[in-house]
């Protein structure tokens, strides 16, 4: 609550409470120019475990924000969360987004399409405009994968369908994500065994995975992750799933090492592979 009061005080009219009871908030961020060219709406939902154990659930909304721009900004926000576990991070997120918008305004990036930008909330709008912004966010074409128990728990032992994402290759290292709907730890084990039957997947340098299963009766999440030798990669993958608020899903990211060290870039590729398959 202290964090929300502080943000409301700092950002004034740009900060909006969409639903105080559900802890849904929206903030309009711009590039700080007298006549802003680049603007973006950040909507956050604060779960009960925030900030101690759960990240905010967020949506980024701007007509120009697509593809690589979306990936890079989302990665930056997730890095901030991972680096500040257990701490309040909304101010850091807002200022990171503002920094990106200022960079865009100062660079040679073409201005966003004026017609599209006009769909956003007008500077002179009153608070009701934010509700329109919030509805636009809800209608964003990016759809997150979530499976309910009824969709996948017909027979516990039955092998769930496994989906394979598009591979990403960088400096001879290749990354590929695999996804399956799961509602029990036994299904997780069954899917992993099935994946490892594939000689190419079994021969990967690392098979990093994470899963989240929502237990309806206990109103809690059963979740776990595995680094498979890639230090902290499983935990990062699980954090991504928490931030995207996905459940009843297992995500495995295979990496085939190509002989050239990638440094921190390897985590970006793991994240991007996982996010791509979750939002496809």
Write the layout of secondary structure elements.
Blueprint: H1 2-11, E1 15-19, E2 24-30, E3 39-45, E4 57-61, H2 67-83, H3 90-106, H4 114-117, H5 128-138, H6 149-152, E5 163-164, E6 168-170, E7 173-181, H7 185-196, H8 199-202, E8 206-215, E9 220-226, H9 233-244, E10 249-256, H10 265-279
Antiparallel strand pairs: 1-2, 2-3, 3-4, 5-7, 6-7, 7-10, 8-9, 8-10
Keywords: Cytoplasm, Repressor, Stress response, Translation regulation
Protein name: IMPCT protein
Domain RWD: 2-104
In short:
Residues 2-104 form the RWD domain. Helices cover 38% and strands 22% of the residues.
CATH architectural designation of the largest domain: Roll
Q: Strand count, sense and closure of the main sheet? A: 6 strands, antiparallel
Treating each run of at least 4 consecutive H or I residues as one helix, how many helices? 10
Give the ordered list of helices and strands.
Answer: HEEEEHHHHHEEEHHEEHEH
Proportion in β-strands: 15-25%
Unreliable stretches (pLDDT < 50, length at least 5) are 114-145, 148-156
Instruction: Provide the CATH topology of the largest domain.
Output: Ubiquitin Conjugating Enzyme
Structural class: alpha+beta
Judging from the principal axes of the Cα atoms, what is the shape?
globular
Look at the structure and give the mean pLDDT: 79
* Rg over C-alpha atoms, rounded to the nearest angstrom: 20 Å
Helix content: 25-40%
Quickly count the domains: 2
The first-level CATH class of the largest domain is given as: Alpha Beta
**Number of DSSP strand runs:** 10
Tell me the CATH superfamily of the largest domain. Answer: Ubiquitin Conjugating Enzyme
Q: Whole-Å distance between the termini?
A: 35 Å
């Amino acid at each position: 609550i202290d964090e929300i009061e502080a943000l409301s005080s700092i950002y004034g009219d740009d900060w909006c409470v969409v639903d105080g009871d559900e802890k849904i908030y929206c903030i309009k961020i711009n590039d700080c120019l007298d006549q802003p060219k680049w603007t973006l709406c950040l909507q956050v939902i604060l779960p009960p475990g925030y900030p101690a154990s759960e990240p905010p659930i967020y949506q980024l909304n701007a007509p120009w924000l697509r593809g690589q721009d979306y990936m890079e900004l989302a990665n930056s926000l997730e890095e901030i969360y991972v680096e500040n576990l257990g701490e309040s991070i909304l101010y850091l997120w807002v200022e990171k987004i503002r920094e990106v918008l200022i960079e865009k305004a100062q660079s040679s990036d073409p201005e966003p399409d004026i017609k599209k930008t006009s769909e956003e909330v007008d500077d002179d709008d009153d608070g009701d405009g934010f509700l329109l912004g919030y509805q636009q966010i809800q209608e964003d074409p990016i759809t997150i994968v979530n499976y309910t128990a009824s969709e996948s728990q017909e027979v516990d032992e039955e092998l769930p369908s496994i989906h394979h994402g598009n591979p990403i290759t960088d400096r001879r290292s290749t990354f590929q994500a695999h996804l399956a709907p799961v509602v029990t730890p036994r299904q997780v084990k069954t899917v992993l065994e099935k994946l490892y039957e594939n000689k190419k997947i079994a021969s990967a340098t690392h098979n990093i995975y994470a899963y989240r299963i929502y237990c309806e009766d206990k109103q809690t999440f059963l979740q776990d992750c595995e680094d498979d030798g890639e230090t902290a990669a499983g935990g990062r993958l699980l954090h991504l799933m928490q931030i995207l608020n996905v459940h009843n899903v297992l995500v495995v990211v295979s990496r085939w090492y190509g002989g050239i060290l990638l440094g921190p870039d390897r985590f970006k590729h793991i994240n991007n592979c996982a996010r791509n398959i979750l939002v496809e």
